[in-house]
Fold this protein.
Amino acid sequence: MFYPAIGPNGHRLFQRNAPSAAQLSPKCSGAVTEPEKRDKFPKSLAIVTAFYPPAIGGVERYSQEFARTAKALGLSVNVITTTSRSRAETAVEDDGINVLRLPARYVPVSGSYFPIPYSGAKEMSEFLDCDVVMAQTRFFLTTLMAAGIAFAQRRRISIVDHGAGPLRPQPWFLAPAMAYEHAVTAVLRCFSPRFFAVSEASSRWLQHFGIPSAPVISNGISESSTMPVRSRGGFEHPVIFFAGRLLREKGVFELVDAVEYLTREGFDLQLRVGGEGPLSKALEEHSRNSRSLTYLGRLGPEDVANELQRATIFVNPSNLPEGMPTILLEAGRAALPVISTLVGGSAELIEDGRTGWSIERGAAALIAAALQSVVMDPDEAIRRGAALFRLVNSQFTWPAIVQRFLRYCEAEYEVPRVSV
């Protein structure tokens, strides 16, 4: 018999003979309650994330890659996320990771969705029975729910924050968003969590909520043994690529305006845009009447990798304060010259003159000027792309990131769990 599991974007996963929580035995190997019986090094990990693949996004990829890497390092791994189905569902994914999907209602909020779980606490409690519990971002209710349950189990949860600024920078949304962030953070701190951040910018943002010196557990990529070869020939007919959530704050239409301006000035440019969001329909309609724009729609990880190999330049025109954009790391692994705003964690990757071109904000005139600089000097573009490749390949690979996190947990692991 098949059991359909429907994710937040309406994608169906079909599970044959879906097991119950008890049948899955979600208690991770090596997890015990008494501190004196535990080994020094964690053997098991639970990851709590509001969204998980097949949903597409930076936090979703972070969670999946972290889980897969921990599994490859020998840990037992449970993942707790949400589904639009009316009951909790469990499955063992192809990569050997136990996944629990809690039933939730998805409330549209400022161009995105906010999941509100309404049952599944018992199943979550079983899945959290691991040596280390990690939750993604402060503001999702899945994190709050997990923190309370972990505290009741005498566990100290680790929360990895992915933001570097307000949830949405629009003036009308800023006040209620900040009030919510302060409130949920205050409640979370009652459970004595340990906070981490995906970038130095994220760590600084946490200080606004009275959280000092959060260690950085950055976003990552899989290690590449060979740097892709970029040649001058690719700059004769440059292909510019952008991928991400299609929000106004991401600056995608400013990028479109910049490319179309340069095209009118005689530059032979093609812009390829992948992603979905509130601007999808407008971008698709615009592409029908544009000679330089191709709208690709929703892209999976393999599609993004193929587009990065095809591209000549990657542009990140976002004005949204993200902790550490996954797509910038992927562009670096592809040795692409990158133009990026210095918002959030982007400034920790893109250093003007060394690893890319930086612009103050995603304005069309600034993007056009930077694009012109890249196209007019292919040798410099190739040099900076190679420098970015060396940076991400040496400091942002998943095995090193997961091991760094586990070393923090090892130090924590030798002290008794918090008392209720």
